Amino acid sequence: MKKIDWYIFKRYLITFTAMLFMFIPIGIIIDVSEKVNRMIENKVAFKEILIYYYGFTIYFANLLFPIFLFLSIIWFTSKLANNSEIIAILSSGISFTRFLRPYIVGATLVSFITLLMGFFILPDASEKFWAFKFDYLTKNGEERQTSDIFRQVKPNEYIYVSSYNAMSKTGFDFFYEKFNGNKLEYKLYANRIKYNEKTKDYTLFNYIKRDIGKDNDIIVKQEKLNKKFDFEPDDLAPTIYAAETMNIFKLVKFIDKERAKGSSNLDIYLVVLYKKFSIPVSAFILTIIAVSVSAMKRRGGMGINLAIGILVAFSFVFFDKIFGTLAERSSLPPFLAVWFPNFIFGILAIYLLRNARR
Exposed/middle/buried for 299, CB within 10 Å: 0-12, 13-18, 19+? Predict the structure, then answer.
């Protein structure tokens, strides 16, 4: 790399890092001001608060990563343009594509770090962030699906509960069905099922079992019965944020397991998986857009470029959130929803790059 490449590359990384250190403390201060009353009410230990804000810092940085990256590039590239440094560089015979090289190298490094963080560091931070939030800041059970839960626990075994209480580990209107191929072997019903921590089994209340026979069915009824099953209480209602707390290897296995069980939260988990790859790719797209927008010297100076940058960055985050929610709440395929913002802004990046090269 030439001196000018190192100069731009260092400015890229230094400005991006400075942007993170500038905005993250602001986010923490705002979060503290909103939640301090709940923390005092729940008598949260100072150590727990520190652990929470470790998770919050990484979670917040990952969430607003596109905005931080985009604004940092807009900022220092606009300064280069206003000081006529870009004009001097291009006048020396360097093409605009060649001028982009240190930006792409910087985007590659940032993208790689973001990828590793999403795979291994963010899950641990997310676990601390969500665990604290639901232990101290929200109502119990909000992190779970608690009604009309249908799951496949084994290839031929299915369970259903009409409602589930995570605190007491109790489900209501419990059904368990065992099939042999397409034929139903037997069916269990209990109007209430409760998990026992000590004995690691379940207590069934008003238990009814129907064995399906060739000629006659055999029905067994008991007021109360203790029985072991091959599923855990969390299999009845796993936390919605469970996927965010797993590294990439555990997440892939978890999704395969949830797909086999017919989980209603599968699309939520797939969105988490796909975003681990789409967010690093967005670093390249946003870098090209930011350079193309801010490389031109404008009459309004840096303020115009920053205004455009803020508009584009928040539009990207808006699209990302909207389509992520659509994937979770509608029939829109998660893969399409997660990658659609990158596709749209990728087209915008190509258009702006061609325009800037002219």
Answer: exposed
Give which of 294, 303, 283 is closest to 77, Cα–Cα: 294
Write the single-letter amino acid at 193. Answer: I
Range 10-21 average pLDDT: 92
Residues in the chain, overall count: 358
Q: Report the C-alpha gap between 312 and 207 in whole angstroms.
A: 59
CA angle 185, 158, 331 (to 5 degrees): 135
Q: Is the pLDDT of residue 249 over 80?
A: yes
Q: CA-to-CA distance for 191 and 146, rounded, in angstroms? A: 16
Gap between the Cα atoms of 259 and 273, Å rounded: 14
Query: Which residue's entry shows tokens 């008598």?
Result: 43
Instruction: For residue 178, name the pLDDT band (cuts at 50, 70, 90).
Output: very high
231 CB-contact burial (10 Å; exposed 0-12 / middle 13-18 / buried 19+): middle
- Sorted by sequence, the CB contacts under 8 Å of residue 12 that are 6+ apart come out as 72, 73, 76, 102, 103, 106
Residue-by-residue DSSP string for 184-240: EEEEEEEEEEEEETTTTEEEEEEEEEEE--SS--EEEEEEEEEE--SS-HHHHS-BT
Where does the pLDDT of residue 141 fall: very low under 50, low under 70, confident under 90, or very high at 90 and above? very low
Where do the DSSP E strands lie in the chain? Answer: 147-154, 157-165, 170-180, 183-196, 201-211, 218-227
pLDDT of residue 99: 92
